[in-house]
Every structure is written in structure tokens, then in C-alpha cells.
Amino acid sequence: MILVTGGAGFIGSFVVEQLLDDGHEVRVLDRLHPGAHDGPPGGLDPRAEWCWADVADPLAVARAVDGVDAVCHQAAMVGLGVDFADAPGYVRDNDLGTAVLLAALHERGFTGRLVVASSMVVYGEGAYGCEAHGPVRPSPRRRVDLDARRWEPVCPQCARPLEPVAVAEALAPDPRTVYAATKLHQEHLCFAYGREHDVSVVALRYHNVYGPRMPRDTPYAGVASIFRSALAAGRAPQVFEDGGQWRDFVHVRDVARANVLALTAPSARSGAYNVASGERHTILEMAQALAAASPGPPMEAAVVPRYRLGDVRHVFGAADAARRELGFTTTIPFADGMREFATSELRHPVGSAAPYAGM
């Protein structure tokens, strides 16, 4: 039996489906937060055992972990959020929820495979090279520079322009938002459990995930969902800064497959792995691809010189470790995935609370 927390949500629901299709028994624990659901979503696979409860509820979690052989922990509050007032929600649902889950596993003597959904946001800014000083980590971008539309980070030693390079897992984390800090703490908690109990723990650092079932019209969604929501409403996507930010976009079905491999691959060693395609595309390129594939009158993405504090300039992933250790490579090319996503159904949030990965 495999437990999937957050299995009714965007990524979790695809993980559940792929596990079931592969013949696994699956139990789902999901809070169904009213900010994202007015009840269980339609289309849930009846082959799974569905438990509607909070991952921060010790009694419910104790029941959910009974008899499980592996755990796929997807439940989390996601996104950059609105402002710092969201901090207690992130800490409660991401950190406390993970701690309650691990305590329940401890009480049950769990020694199976543990997979935790992490994120590339733990890196902060991506990796860079300076022609004079080699690999460097730029400081957080300053408001004065962003106001002056100086988008690119510079070398902290000589102020030369930097060349962005792919982020490997060995890069020291540098979380720069509350969400990023809680995702890194989730990793630390899970690895601590793994060391104490001799359990294999795999943290999957998702890069920019997109695809069907993304929540729409919410400040907590990813940029792909924000652009897709705008196009569905007949508005041009608004691309911040100059649109030149590099990212690695990964289709949700590929992300789900990475989870299945992490849960089942005999060679999977404990550690963090990028879930990435190994290809980089700019935010503007993604917006243009969506706009070109959207039904209705032709529409161009609009570049607006605005910014969000906490956003980083460039971050895209090296995919070597996941390919070598998990046997994972992406199968859905960027162009094909964006064409599908342009007409995919999105989830409509309910109420005004933050949506959760597990909701």
C-alpha cells in the first residue's frame, strides 16, 4: 500500500493515477481545503482509498499510515503567496504537516520508501558564472535595481554581467521566500527521519510544473496557470520584467512519473533530485507559445516592466542525477505540452483561501 498525501490535487492526482495503472494499492490523504474545493473533485479514481482529513491532524494521520509500505508526500501550500501574512499558513501546512506525518510514521515503525515533493525554489537564484571569478552566487536583487529595470544580477566581486548555467543538486540552497524556506525545511525533516530510521528518502525538486488541472485565477498558482487563466478570460498574458527569465518547464505527467520511479526504482538513493527537462525557455517564450495555441482571436503576450519581490531572475535544472539514479527523463516536449495546456481544463478555486498542492 502506498500513501499519497495531497492526492486529490494538481500533481498528486496524476501520481495516484499512474500508481494505480501500474498495479499498486493506493491510499490518499487530502484535506480538501475549502479555498480550493467545495468537496471531492470529480473524476477521482475509485480504485484508490480516499481519506478526507488534514495532514496536520495526528489522529487522522495515524490511521492513514497504518499498513503502508511507501509514502509520497505531496500535500503543501504552494506558490509565492500574497504577502508575509501568509507565513503562518505555509509553516502550518508545510512544516507542521510534515512533522505530524513523520511522527506518525515513527510510531508505526515505518521503514519503507519516503518521497517528498520539494521545489527548485530552495535554490533561490540559479547558478551563474563570471568570466573573471568563475562560479558565483549573486546577492538578492535590490529594489533600487529593479525599479531602474536592471533585471540581471551581476558578479558580487566585480559587477560584471553573469552567465546563467544549469542548477545541479550540489548547489547550496538559498531560499528567498517563506514558501521556499518551508520546502527546504520539509526536506530537512524528511532526511532527519531517514537517517534516524535507516529509511530511503527522495526529495524531488520540481521545476516549473504545468498541465491540466492547474488551479486558475489565484495568486498562489504558477506562472503558466496565471498566463493560461488570462488567455481563457480573453486577456493578454502580462509578462513581468522583460520576459527574459530562464526557466525549465516540466509537464505534470512527467512529474508524476518521476514520483513513481522515486517510489519504486531499486537504485534510488537517498538525496535530492531535480525534476527537470534539462532544457531552458524564457517566460516570454512560454507566454508566446500559449498565446499562439489558444483558441479564439490571435493575442500577443504583453511585456510590462513590473516585478515581484522574491522572484529570482534565472533558475533552470540539470537533469543528470535523476536520469542516472532514477531512470527519469521527460517525454513531453515543450512545444507539444504547451499546445495541450492551451486548451486543457483548469480547476476553479472556491473561496478566497490559498490553494494547496494537496487540494
**Strand fraction band?**
15-25%
Structural class per helix/strand content? alpha/beta
Radius of gyration: 20 Å
Helix content: 25-40%
- The poorly predicted ranges are 351-359
Shape: globular
Number of strands: 16
User: Please, what is the average pLDDT?
Assistant: 91
Instruction: Note the main sheet.
Output: 7 strands, parallel
Spatial strand sequence of the major β-sheet: 3-2-1-4-5-9-14
How many helical stretches? Answer: 10
Termini separation comes to: 21 Å
Sequence of secondary-structure elements: EHEEHEHEEEHEHEEHEEEHEEHEHH
Give a written overview of the molecule.
It is a single chain. This protein is α/β, with parallel strands linked by helices and 359 residues long. The protein has ten helices and 16 strands. The strands form five sheets. The chain has a seven-stranded parallel beta sheet with strand order 3-2-1-4-5-9-14, with helices on both faces. Strands 7-6-8 form a three-stranded antiparallel beta sheet, with no helix packed on it. Strand 1, helix 1 (10-21) and strand 2 form a beta-alpha-beta unit. The longest helix is centred in the first third of the chain and has 22 residues, at 87-108. The chain is globular and about 55 Å long. The model is unreliable at 351-359 (pLDDT under 50).
